[in-house]
Design brief:
This protein is an alpha+beta fold. The chain contains 4 helices and 4 strands.
């Protein structure tokens, strides 16, 4: 996973809102894709549910939603 950090097995995109906007607008949309905004409770659930983890990790973008994700990124040097 490039440009993502690991938060309890979920790879969260390392991207700010402006970069996310640009990537979304520049995406060719020739194939299906989706964007996730998991909060800490969804990430906690995903740590116990491999199918949910797979859904989150295969997204076009998995954006951080909330302070726990921000803290996890900061602790990993992002």
């Amino acid at each position: 996973m490039t440009n993502r950090f690991n938060f309890l097995g979920v790879w969260i995109s390392r991207i700010n809102p402006e970069e996310a906007r640009k990537r979304i607008l520049d995406h060719p949309f020739q194939s299906p894709g989706y964007i996730c905004f998991p909060d800490a409770s969804v990430i906690k659930d995903a740590s116990k549910d491999s199918f949910l983890t797979e859904i989150l990790n295969n997204s076009y973008l998995t954006m951080p939603d909330g302070k726990p994700s921000q803290l996890a990124a900061k602790l990993q040097g992002f």
